[in-house]
Fold this protein.
Amino acid sequence: MSIQLLSGNEACALGALKAGVRFFAGYPITPSTEIAEMMSEELPKLGGIFIQMEDEIASICAMVGASAAGMKAMTATSGPGFSLMQEGIGYAIMTEVPCVIVNVQRGGPATGLPTKVAQADVMAARWGTHGDHPIVALAPWSVMESFTLTVKAIEISERLRLPVLILSDEIIGHMREVVSIPESVAIHERKKPTKSKDEYLHYHDETNFDAPFAHFGEGFRIHISGLTHRQDGFPTNDPKVIKWKMDRLRNKTDLNRDWLHFDEHLDLDAETVIVSYGSSARAALEAKNEFEKNGSKKIGFLRLITLWPFHYMKVAELLQNTKRVVVVEMNQGQMTREIARAVRRDVQVIDVNRYDGELITPAEVLEKL
Amino acid sequence: MNQEILDRLRMDDRFPHILCPGCGIGSAMNAMIRAIAESGLTNDDICIISGIGCSSRVPGYIDADTFHTLHGRAIPSATGVKLAHPDKEMIIIAGDGDLLAIGGNHFIHAARRNLDMTVILINNHNYGMTGGQYSPTTPQGKRAKTAPYGCVERAFDACEMGIGSGAVFVARSTTYHTPHLKGLIKQAMKKNGFALVEVISQCPTLYGRLNRMGDAVKMLEYFKENSITVSQVKEPKDAEGKIVIGVLHDIEAPEYYESYRKVCEHAQRR
């Protein structure tokens, strides 16, 4: 354990290094660049690979190539780069290559607001790449969580063979806090296939969780393609096989919703519950504490850590006694709609939004309580 | 075909291939496999990477680690594989639209970076998979499905582009000159750095038909009659209207991974 003063971006890079990431490909973009800078300094010391590519498309492709060749790999970006990475995210989903993409969110659309905060990529994270697909997205609210969730994201990605997104934001990325970083964390090692080259199927159905799989360079002569494919990786137009593949992808998150769901909650038996995530949850919690100073009435607090897959049943259960939900987020109401879909129809859903590049203040939340 | 070559293919259920009768991609693939075999490499020593398009279907037929990536993204994907397995030979097979249009930025930067890989560009002057639209190598005035009145744009010279971007080995051949092509691919694979081999190829189904160039045999005859070797070019006008074949560029420059390893050693000593 060591006590350190770190920014969220530095904690994220450190988490990745501790969890065994040895490949980073990226392209400079504010406010994520400190992650790439730290990787460029630390990875050579560990014999890992840091490479700055010509754009974010190249970055995600290089990362997917390295991961398919056996390395734990990560990249980091922000809004405009995240848009460019969408095709690669879809490719990693289709080919079932583990990788972690950190999106330190800034205001959009387009070039938007470099170095100003937003949480407006929540839906881009869910549906940014084309086609039906599963995705996992985690939102840290502190420097420490930037570390722990990066470690967790890598584990999830490796176990599910699925890209995992960290939806950080400019506040979390640039904020400094004193954190205690463990000397080491549990490193998830990929399982090697026990079958011979001739028997091995790259997308075998024996298990879809923690499944053994081969990499390039191990003698299995695998074929990896973004075309919809059979168990052996070769393209197909057979409707039955297409459905099998699409269900297989969906089941990665559908069958693991409980395992993938993380939240933090307080006083959920209160009439009014504030729901938030990421940096705006800090203002939301402050508002709860302020409100409770002035009277005996409690305010509930639910902080979503896992944004995707959104666990509708779990959120409905958590908010079952609630009469009013106040959703606090820095966008025009992206997660509010998901919350409204999860709660009873008689629950009043109020949103507190800010999308002017400024952090929501506790006072703005208090007004709605 | 001899058994040693057949053994390198996925003969079980990948054939017949999807290529049109008379397509030049099979000839280029043949030359590539023979070059791999004659270089003493087993199929476990190589990784074949492609993007999207007709030529990008080649990896699926070869019994090796094969990586069919996104349109234009073969080179950056190969960059990741190569850095994870520097001992493996990266062979990228790409079409003109894939490599020079959507993948053009990756191509020039990979050449500049000089990571060891061999790029085989099968240039048939149009987008075949989507039905014959004009590409960055369609000559000005030639017809394509999206250039029904003749192509307005000027064409890229892929080899000049490679040389200008820093490739250490650049060569050109055609699907008529397959033994020559095989030799160039062998040289390119042996080269430590970014190597480009351009193969001028026929697409009789689309580009050839749209430009009344005759069948595949006619197009191959055209390549035969209109090619000259590098050594035959005494002055620039000798090359006008000709396909210049042979090694166009061969220099020494530090290879990316070797340079990167030195950086690692330096960082570890500090």
In short: The mean pLDDT of chain A is 97. Chain A has 13 helices and 16 strands. Residues 273 and 300 of chain A are 4 Å apart (CA to CA). The radius of gyration of chain A is 21 Å.
